[in-house]
Structure prediction request, 678 residues.
Amino acid sequence: MSELMNRQIVLKSRPHGEPTTENFALVETAMRQPGEGEVLRRTIYLSLDPYMRGRMSDGPSYASPAALNEAMPGGTVSKVVYSRNPAFAEGDFVLGYDGWQEYGLSDGQELRTLDPVLAPISYALGVMGMPGMTAYFALLDIGKPKEGETVVVSAAAGAVGSIVGQIAKIKGCRAVGLAGTDEKCRVVTEDLGFDACINYKTQELDSALKQTCPNGIDIYYDNVAGPILAAVLGHINLGARIPLVGLISQYNATTPPIGPNLVALLIKRAQIRGFLVTDCMHRYAEFASEMGTWLRTRKLRYRESIVDGLENSPTAFMGLFTGENTGKLLVRVSQDPTV
Amino acid sequence: MSELMNRQIVLKSRPHGEPTTENFALVETAMRQPGEGEVLRRTIYLSLDPYMRGRMSDGPSYASPAALNEAMPGGTVSKVVYSRNPAFAEGDFVLGYDGWQEYGLSDGQELRTLDPVLAPISYALGVMGMPGMTAYFALLDIGKPKEGETVVVSAAAGAVGSIVGQIAKIKGCRAVGLAGTDEKCRVVTEDLGFDACINYKTQELDSALKQTCPNGIDIYYDNVAGPILAAVLGHINLGARIPLVGLISQYNATTPPIGPNLVALLIKRAQIRGFLVTDCMHRYAEFASEMGTWLRTRKLRYRESIVDGLENSPTAFMGLFTGENTGKLLVRVSQDPTV
Prediction:
């Protein structure tokens, strides 16, 4: 195999507060030759997700920090371009965790082969992957939605929130989203079928929640924490369930922000419970079967927001925190031959 | 029946912040004559509990506010002095909710007859009553203690906390209390058998929790919320359970204080869940059987702090918020003929 140059976006420095382009660097390195049993693949799609902000810091978290001067971590869908591992053939599509770079090389133990006939290969990074599982398990296991209940979800136009509201609808609930632009709210209600959507940047939250949730809130699927959680707590019903799945509102904070007063939890005998999708990985089959059915029968719609070019990853990533994307954010690192 | 004068402590005005003696008034009114089917009783013990602070305000809560110029509400153990109800005989001891007054009169539907042979009658207001049930159900149902786990409880010398730690020990857990004086800490460890107790007023909480909970915290039984909850969150283990049972630290606040940052819930997949004992009243028998056994076999010890005289109720009540009492706080309104 001739020498291959690999472009990478590496973590150059740890951000203090909001990440900037200064924290990233585009570097080009020569790939080593694949050894016996190894498989080389070329990245087609790179997933960009809010959790990556945590990896950029070296404070305590549920995962170890990204290393400086190495490719930023991230989920990828790739095409096998060279294989010395009998489990993979050239041309196979695989789900992996190769990070922000053009090529990945390993013994392939962490890879999962994708069938492009079953679903678009990019779905493995979204609705059929980690964001879809996050929406599915946190809503169903912690939220336990019952017909007729009201489910509120923050970041409703995002990769996870957009799925949460649709599952809520499938379960017979009223689904109310929170999003940061009128256009996102339009997508959430008109395209995704939520019953209502609140633009939390322009609407007064308290009265908007009262108006859109006339019977109170039974489940609040929280992707953001912060002031939205505090406002929601004023409207929860007896026995409300609050899966806490993300704290997007504070990922860029330089000091931990304060939290909401919890008296409503006591008055309403409600619960807040943290959720990490990694705890549910062993239940992938159960998830994939039901989610696959919903997609095939068009009970659930899925939106992607695709940015072209590895070099644009830092800017696209930063947009996650300023509300630039609608749907799952992906970077197309190389052409997708299946579409 | 000759005319009977009833002394009452009434709510004269709603407190702004900490209650003061100005908010209460001692009044004397004539009792009306008992009607057909009614039962008149004389209060022996009045229970004083932190939740009463909530009743003094007219903000939103889980119970309606106490009425101005009426007797403050509260649990009582009384002796039947006159009965026109065949279900009660003169001399019977009854548990009721007669409030801060010398006499109660009603059709008796809400009363429960007590057997002074089974347990001291005052226990019905403490370890065998609402505080005991609060300790028992919130710890067992939400906390779900498993052998070898570490249970931390705030207000550990109080009516509820002192029982929580002892149940934790019975369940094979390490029990660590938080209390506000060295003397309370001594009681908690030496008399009640907790493994450790932190004086949160004199010790640096973070290092004290680290030292007394070397394996982290699996259950935090929270009676107080506020800064102690925030500190505890820094030491919780994966899957920690936090029954939120009281918010003593903020009952006197004039504006709702901020809460803790909740990122630890996500990282540790932990939960905070509000608890109100009223939801468990139908499970009294289950509780009474097990708690009664623990008391009889001396696996669990119970302490009372008794103040004499109805007129001293306001001062004793205010002491709940400044940490005056150790164990269950009661007012002896009239002599207990069983002791």
